[in-house]
Amino acid sequence: MSLVDNSKPLNFSFDGKSFKGFEGDTLASALLRNNVRLVGRSFKYHRPRGIIGAGSEEPNALAEIHQDGVIEPNRRATMIKLFDGLAVKSQNGSPSLNFDILAINDLVSPFLSAGFYYKTFMWPRVFWEKVYEPAIRRAAGLGRLSTNPDPDSYDKGFLHCDTLIIGAGAAGLQAALIAGRAGARVILADEDFQMGGRLLSDPQLIDGICGQGWAEQTIAELHTLPNVRLLPRTTVYGQYDHGIYGALETRTDKIGAPGARQVLWRIYSQNAILAAGAIERPIAFANNDRPGIMLASAMRTYENRFGIDFGDYPVLTNNNSTKRNHAASRIDTRDAQWVSDTRGRKGLNSVSLNSGQNIETDWLGVSGGWNPNLHLTCHKRSRPKWDETKACFVPDINTLPENMQVIGAANGEFSTYEAFASAKSACASLGHKSGKPPKAEDTPLSINAFWHVKGKKRAWVDFQNDVTSKDITLAHQEGFSSVEHVKRYTTLGMATDQGRTSNVVGLAILADARGQSIPETGTTIFRPPYAPVPIGAFAGPHKGQHFKQTRLTPSHKYAAEQGAAFVETGYWKRAQWFARNGEQGWRDSVDREVITTRSSVGICDVSTLGKIDVQGRDAGAFLNKVYVNSFKLLKPGKCRYGLMLREDGIAMDDGTSARFSDTHYVMTTTTANAGLVYRHLEFARQCLFPDMDVHLISTTEQWAQYSVAGPNARKLLQKIVDQEYDISNEAFPYMACGKVTVCGGTRARLFRLSFSGELAYEIAVPTRYGDALIRAILEAGEEFGACMYGTEALGVMRIEKGHAAGNELNGTTTALHLGLGGFVSKKKDCIGKVLSQREGLVAEDGLRLVGFIAVDSKDQITNGAHFINIGDPKDAAHDQGYMSSVAYSPELGHYVGLGFIKGGDKRKGEEVMAVDFVRDNHINVRIVSPHFVDPDGDRLRV
Amino acid sequence: MIINHPLFGPRDAAEFVYLGDASLMNRPDPKAEDAIQQFYEYMYLRDNPAGEHRELWFHEQGDRSWLIVTRNTFTHEITKVELARQS
Fold it and tell me: Is the domain A152-281+369-449+533-547 a CATH 3.50.50.60 member?
């Protein structure tokens, strides 16, 4: 009985022509319903091709779904559920499906054999990129992509279950019923939109009712069980470690429909039952690829499930006992009869038999036996074993993945009764007892392997990649005899169908050529995914601005109001500069911010710096271990700059730590390394020094922190910090820290720290007051002409001061290179100290951080430039070091740079050439102190 | 993969950050005569066996515990999970 609903017609178009199908159709069945046999052109030879299968194995009928300028290519017509308005185009026909000029390839096919590209396009070399590759890409290949954005949304989800059952045919449905009735949490997934598997296609009686009826009744009962979740149109594509499976659910094929189009599920299971059935395979005889030649089981599906009429004269050829529908002629290889060739230009007209007889027919069903769908048993490197009597690979029970059982046809148990019986025993092994299996047909499969018909003409093995039996024997003759080599040389099984219909046939032909048995020849390994998974589904909702999280600073809203340009630093968006009316470009804004800060007061949001609370009796001793310099003796109420090394001796991060009490420090890290440093500290605490009494917690997000810098910084803060706190220079000197209240009682932390080189403070309040505080500070600063400054001005001022930052702490430099060798305490051990003393890292003439200015102040120095001694050749052999940071100094009126140069600390005053091949800018520079502004630090202490 | 956290029970491996051989916990004595040689070996010469391996994982998206996971690198079977600070 047909399962399509004739009362619900659906309109669709194929290559611009309108057709009608019905609810319940796939695109493939709807095309057949409209007598469309020619649906595509083959990959290499542009041969006319038709539908071969009825499921995910389909190699030929690939099509593009079109909608409003968006194209989804390479969709299998058998897997598209027909909907009203579906617009589909065929692929690889040029200019059209019916008239394809590249079909000339078919006539020159003797030159296009296996390894053709490797042999032909060798010379001249430049032709590969310019001529051959573009031409080949145009001619070959599958569907096209539109360059328009994908309008659809995709989702991801997580599911947990006791038992995952993959495949909802007779075996899967029965297993779900037994486990579901026993109360187990079951997920039943099937790639078809209609569950039932072969029960929908093969007429039979189960306990006296028809197979379709039994499936319908079983699915209805499963729907009533709250512990069973049914996932139709869900392909389980991969088996991963510890019972985790990947699955792709297709909700709709319509492009631009509301809701998620596809959902990528990660399924956590206690155990799994693979009931994925089996796929019929073709026989390789001459011209076996004409439209109208189809797998016999697929014809049966189209007749019974979809109600397609194949006319009065279909022919069947097979090598086994599987039940068939009516046919005018049956050609059974077991009776020494076989099809040796076919005729028909754009579709089958007639077949010729080995006896010489010709039979006219439009449709030929082929069955070369069955391949169990055991792919998922192999994803963790189990290998299947060859079953000679069934002529197929079956799962090897001894190497099955943990907690996986295989039942029914997937296990080579092809009769319906065997499917039921194996479901019963699989469930029993999980502790779910059940009664007698339903009564069903139980004829064992009888098959005599018959793979290919030898001859001069081409017989297709891999339809999608246009691999013929001759290509396989040629590969063998040319020395590519191992299965893996044949696969790569011929591309057998490497198309989007992953050799579903071709691998075993190809292997049998290779075995024949080698004069060996199939198990001696081997099998290729199956890897995930079982079926193609769109990249969009892997990305899920994580695209565009949702690709990663966005973190906004506490002053973000205010900064946006002030016209800030934002820059991404890690997940953070930080204000880069604040453009004002009349400013011509970013440099105008940055120069103004620097000048305002250095002459009056500027404010910068530094909340993004990592903040780690370090508490415990051994907090000081712990910091001594992770910093090169000493913190144990730091007095409460004081801050100190600290440099941290990796254990290999390379500088990892720097920042300041403030001591609030004997047992409480607050560490700051750079923005970029906040997470990394925290992980490193936890490693030191838990793995290296577990006896220390110290605890850590990240408080980066808990505090809004602003730098207030410039000669008027104190005057401004005196208006913000409550009167009872004395922050005069005497009471609160450089490097002091303390707890205060602001704005009438709001708790805050105050640090007298300076990155800019000016009199400066950092003030922190709980994050929720951050927006209020920034507004209060700027309002209080109005009388001083205070302004916000961004990361660019911050960078200019730190370069002017010679402070190292990320460009200098770049993963290759040590404390010594950074000019901080004197910081490393001689009295104590710290992480990285021992290895920082390695010979190569302490060389006298090693790189040292120094400053650079152009000899001619009109020249613009550039970072990334390499230093060469004047007169030396400009090559790597004469490299003296590199420029790491450059900025225009508004205070000095010219560019200043920081960089590393060999023996730099002893070369001040010397001139070298800064060579920049990227910008083609080679200029003479002078080595100077890196402290360009206020070298003695007087401004810090006023 | 699923890691059976001693305090939290089974957790997806995506919550963790991998570091490597648990021998990284055996930091040499910095005062030893041949400290540089010992630290060099500690830092750079680690085993990478195909088979059972004790390795360090950090529960970064969780309680920030460092764990020692005994895992077969060939089969991914995990036989033991300990808190690093208690081992």
Answer: yes
With CB atoms and an 8 Å threshold, state whether A244 touches B25: no
Interface of B to A at Cβ within 8 Å reads 1-2, 17, 19, 24-25, 27-28, 30-31, 35-36, 39-40, 42-43, 56, 58, 60, 64-66, 75-76, 78, 83-85
pLDDT recorded at residue A132: 65
> What pTM value is reported for the model?
0.90
Secondary element (H or E) of residue A842: none
Q: Which residue has the higher pLDDT, B23 or A140?
A: B23
Structural tokens at position A918: 């990227």
* Partner residue opposite B1 with nearest CB, options A242, A683, A837: A242
Q: Is a pLDDT exceeding 80 seen at residue A579?
A: yes
* A834 contacts on B by Cβ (under 8 Å): 28, 30, 35-36, 39
Query: In this structure, how many other beta carbons lie within 10 angstroms of the beta carbon of residue A487?
Result: 23
Indicate where chain A has its CATH 1.10.10.1100 domain(s): 283-368+450-521
Query: How do residues A273-308 score in pLDDT, each as one tens digit?
Result: 999 999 999 999 999 999 999 999 999 999 999 999
In A, which residues are within 8 Å of B24 by CB distance? 687
Strands (E) in A402-485, as ranges, are 404-406, 460-462, 467-468
Mean pLDDT along residues A204-218 = 96
Asked: is A283-368+450-521 a CATH 2.40.110.10 domain? The reply is: no
Query: Smallest CA–CA separation between A685 and chain B, in Å?
Result: 8
Q: How far apart are CA A180 and CA A221, in angstroms?
A: 10
Q: What is the CATH T-level fold of the domain A843-942, as seen in this structure?
A: Elongation Factor Tu (Ef-tu); domain 3 (2.40.30)
Q: What is the CATH number of domain A551-639+670-804?
A: 3.30.1360.120
Residue in B19, B36, B60 closest to A834 by CB: B36
- Nearest beta carbon to residue A686 from set B17, B43, B84: B84
Residues of B in contact with A379 (CB under 8 A): none
List every span in chain A annotated with CATH 3.10.20.440.
7-150
pLDDT, tens digit (0-9, with 9 covering 90-100), for A803-831:
999 999 999 999 999 999 999 999 999 99
What is the pLDDT averaged over residues A897-915?
Answer: 97
Domain with CATH 3.50.50.60 in chain A: 152-281+369-449+533-547
- Quick check: ipTM above 0.95? yes
**Residue A128 pLDDT > 90, yes or no?**
no
Question: Could you tell me how many CB contacts below 8 A there are between chain A and chain B?
Answer: 61
Q: The CATH number of B2-86 is which of 3.90.226.10, 2.40.37.10, 3.30.2270.10, 3.40.630.30? A: 3.30.2270.10
CATH 2.40.30.110 range(s) for chain A read 843-942
In chain B, where are the structural domains located?
2-86
Long-range contacts, stretch A838-846, CB < 8 angstroms, 24+ apart: A838/A649, A838/B36, A838/B40, A841/A649, A841/A814, A841/A816, A842/A816, A844/A903, A845/A902, A845/A903, A846/A816, A846/A817, A846/A902, A846/A903
Q: pLDDT, tens digit, for every residue of A863-894? A: 999 999 999 999 999 999 999 999 999 999 99
Exposed e or buried b per residue across A114-149, where buried means at least 16 C-beta atoms within 10 angstroms of its C-beta:
bbeeeeebeeeeeeeeeeeeeeeeebbeebeeeeee
- When scoring B43, B59, B74 by the number of chain A Cβ atoms within 10 A, the one with the most, hence best to mutate, is B43
Q: What is the pLDDT of residues A374-394, one digit of tens each?
A: 999 999 888 999 999 999 999
Mean pLDDT of A3-9: 96
Q: Is A829 in contact with B36 (Cβ distance < 8 A)?
A: no
Tell me how far apart the alpha carbons of residues A421 and A436 are, in angstroms, rounded to a whole number: 8
CB contact under 8 A, B58 and A679: yes
Chain B residues with CB under 8 Å of A683 CB are: 19, 56, 58, 66
CB A901 within 8 A of CB A911: no
Q: Average per-residue pLDDT in chain A?
A: 94
What is the CATH number assigned to the segment(s) A7-150? 3.10.20.440
A837–B76 C-beta distance less than 8 A? no
CA dist., res. A247 & res. A613, Å (int): 43
Tell me the three state secondary structure of residue A138: helix
User: Confidence band (pLDDT; 50, 70, 90) for A498?
Assistant: confident
